[in-house]
Design goal:
Layout (H helix, E strand, L loop, with lengths): L5 H4 L2 E4 L5 E6 L5 E8 L13 H8 L10 H9 L4 E6 L4 E8 L3 H14 L4 H19 L2 H14 L12 H6 L2 H11 L6 E6 L3 H13 L22 E6 L4 E9 L8 H12 L5 H9 L3 E10 L4 E10 L3 H18 L3 H19 L2 H14 L6 H10 L2 H11 L6 E6 L5 H8 L3
Length: 434
Amino acid sequence: MFQCSNDFNMYSEKVFSNGFKLITAPTRNTKTATILILVPVGSRHENRGLYGASHFIEHLMFKGTSRRPSSLAIARELDKIGAQFNAFTSKDHTGYWVKTTANKVNVSFDVLSDMLFRSLFRLAEFEQERNVILEEIKMYEENPLLYIDEFFEKTIYHNHILGKPISGRSIDIKKMSLTKLISYRNRFYQPSQMVMAAAGNIDKSQIIKLSQKYFANNSGEKTKNKYNAFHVNKKKNNRVKVLNRNIKQAQIALGGFALPYGDPQTETLLLLSIILGGNMSSRLFGEVRVKRGLAYFIKTELNPYQDVGSYTIRAGVDKEKVSLTLRVILGELKKIKKYGVSKEELKRAKDYFQGVMLLSLEDSSTLSSWYAKQSLFLKQIITPQQKLERIKMVRIEDIKSLANRLFKKNSFNLAVIGPFKSSAPFLRVLGEGI
């Protein structure tokens, strides 16, 4: 137990003279290679007049470059080699990735560097993509299952930038200026800020040469990446937000503040999350779905940032059974606070984590993300084997102690989407205590 293939633990870092950081993580048992580039900019770095800018830029990166003047030209270049490619924006970083067979990795470098450094950002594409993003916003806002996560962060982070949507609001996108957007891009999209992780069936020397050619030779300004830090209010009060929607199944998200990136208790929190709602043998799944039939799905989620983090318990339940479901969930939290977990239960959670982690790391895209994200946010990278060793060290008393730290009276945040006009009934349930 707690052994990890050496393939997953072999990595090296190199920082080029312009500040561009490269991580190589070669593995033998795959025919694919993933090139992932992370830029430390997301919605939390935005201010008034630029809400939604990070996500908007991600869209425009696919609309044409000086060498490939259309989105079709970019897509054809990658489609003709059978590549998988995409991008994503979060609250604290943006990512661009291409996954290919090992012998086509040079194409990944060529296309990604072209997009990141030579995208045209023309007015016609800007206006067209504005409409696309407005439709994307509607898609999320009008689908409770998709929107509940965003609504929960709006609840817990309230008026802070972390509580604002990654895509911006419709009013923000309608007012967005192309000039401001380009200035924002030029500020953050500098080689000195970027981290690349190349993982899979790669040749380290080839990757270094390609990085030198496509990224290290690009000069750029060294900018400081500042953000508005979040400070948890020590005065504890339950907070409930209700979004009135005429639907039969309500979406609920109950949670609170947890741990930021790299916290010493991260592994304890991971195991606590698994035990509560991480799989089909978890406590909440057994109590809420199997025993009572209150929900089709119920799960726990963790969302860490650099300065703060949160945990969430999510479920979709009948509109008449929201209060009952909340009482059942709170009852399970109360049990784990009072009685902790058994030795066997903790062992199952550890074994589950190991299995899921090792299976996922067989994919070069997951392995690239493992190293890139840590390099971006943490002072020291933890290998998969080191992670397993940390998991192994978590004790029964650690789980109980953290549960008592997190699940305190008047510390809950609840987001509810359903046919409700008032939050009062749900506040009363939370007020019953734990």
